Amino acid sequence: MSDLARVFPFPGVDTDPPVTFEEYLASAGLAPATIVNYSYFVRRALEECEQMGVDLHTVDSEMLLTMAHRVAEVETSRRKALGAALSHWFRYEEVDDPPHWVEWSPTSVKVAGSWERSANYEDYLVSVGLAPGTIRNYAWHVNRAAELCQEMGGDLCTASPQMLVTVADEIGPSHSMRAQLRSGLKYYYRWQNRNDAPLSAVRVPPQPQLVCQALEPDEARALIETARGWWPQGAAVLLGMYLASRREEIAKAEWSRFDDNMEWYRVTGKRDKTATIPVHPVVVEEFAPLRTTGFIFPGRTGVRDHVSPATVWKWTKEVARAAGLGDVRTHQLRHTSLTTALDNTENLRSVMEFARHSRPQTTAGYTRTTKEQLWAVMEALDY
Known about the structure:
Elements: H1 21-27, H2 32-52, H3 61-72, H4 76-92, H5 115-127, H6 132-151, H7 161-171, H8 175-191, H9 217-227, H10 233-243, H11 247-251, E1 264-268, E2 274-278, H12 281-287, H13 309-322, H14 330-345, H15 348-355, H16 360-364, H17 371-379
Antiparallel strand pairs: 1-2
Helix pairs in contact: 1-2, 2-3, 2-4, 3-4, 5-6, 6-7, 6-8, 9-10, 10-12, 10-13, 10-14, 14-15
């Protein structure tokens, strides 16, 4: 299926994702008109990429420039809107190393006077040991803040508290967006040696409580029964259910990450954190006869080495519907895996290691109350 054919609805993202791209933009705090605008530009970008015979997930800077000229011509406002829309889409699609939209924008956003300065800011972030994805994220927020300050007739380096309040309101009200903005600005002002920066003006709301999205035990059994023997769709689902793999991790799964006996699997997840976890016998039974080299789910020849996370999203829905479960997202497989493990082991530390979480509080959020447990509460009301 082409990118254009599946563009609406868009596939979900990894961390408790919304189903559609528009919902993702809404969760980031964008205004309704902006959401409509960004959705239009992403649709047009996918159309142009399809006509050029390239995949937007893997497009290089040169092809992106060609696509941008067709979609937005040379008008500054259209280029900026297209660039901002693609910045959100690349993050939504978890593209590992997307071309940075500011590199082909006709008018560069100046941070502290020049783009050379902005590049040095990113070098500074490298020097303090931040991960590449974090650097891209912070740089995007800082450059967006600089653009907004310029629109208000000011400069980010000397921004007043009220100016940063306006910047925060424009970027979005969600916990994640505000936290990323504040962290990016914290490093920026350290780099600028500004000790009186009004960072407290960027108010970060409390982090929303994690809502468990695990399938009920009977639903999980039905899904696994349907997935077994179904390659590659069902195999991808089994990795989510038995290895608690994220969508991106499933797409990038490699045979070489299994040990010789397929008893252990080495997975690299968020923030490049790598862990070696045991492999369930069901996975061994399904995967061992097909073991070869390279990626477990290879991509289209000449386009990408492995399938895209969007393909994994589509496979999950296909298997779930065949199991009679309706709409199930890939991240629900991970929720089901970790929640079931907590239900059965009550060992938070071990499940935390299996999940590759950095904080036990994150793992603790994967608790649930099943229908059977609620029924038991009712039965206990014997007066």
